[in-house]
Specification:
- By secondary structure, the protein is mainly β.
- It has no helices and eleven strands.
- Strand 5 and strand 6 form a beta hairpin.
């Protein structure tokens, strides 16, 4: 069974930065693409960013492109989301997820395991 545990969320002011981490259990972490999603109150879960198994290919939602960076360290079984220039509309619970395959997973149906989420609140 795969377990994903997010950390690094918190309260930050507009324009600030946070780095989220997602630690994965299991020895096959490097075989799979990984991604980040977020869900704001009253809204559907939306895609944020994703990376292939090696980290060489990445994909971002237009709303975060140029501000967020996804990366991974396969030796540590961890994927990161560096978030810069945060805006109030970035406030949400952020989830990491594992893709079905090694390529960049771009839709919610491409994922099979999910973490519990970490809250990010951006105050104005």
């Amino acid at each position: 069974q795969v377990q994903l545990v997010e950390s690094g969320g918190g309260l930050v002011q507009v324009g600030g930065s946070l780095r989220l981490s997602c630690a994965a259990s299991g020895r096959t972490f490097s075989n799979y693409g990984m991604g980040w999603f977020r869900q704001a109150p009253g809204k559907e879960r939306e895609f944020v960013a994703a990376t292939s198994w090696s980290g060489s290919n990445t994909y971002y939602a237009d709303s975060v492109k140029g501000r967020f960076t996804i990366s991974r360290d396969n030796a540590k079984n961890t994927v990161y989301l560096q978030m810069n220039n945060l805006k109030p509309e970035d406030t949400a619970v952020y989830y990491c997820a594992r893709g079905h395959t090694s390529v960049v997973p771009t839709t919610i149906d491409d994922y099979d395991y999910w973490g519990q989420g970490t809250q990010v609140t951006v105050s104005s």
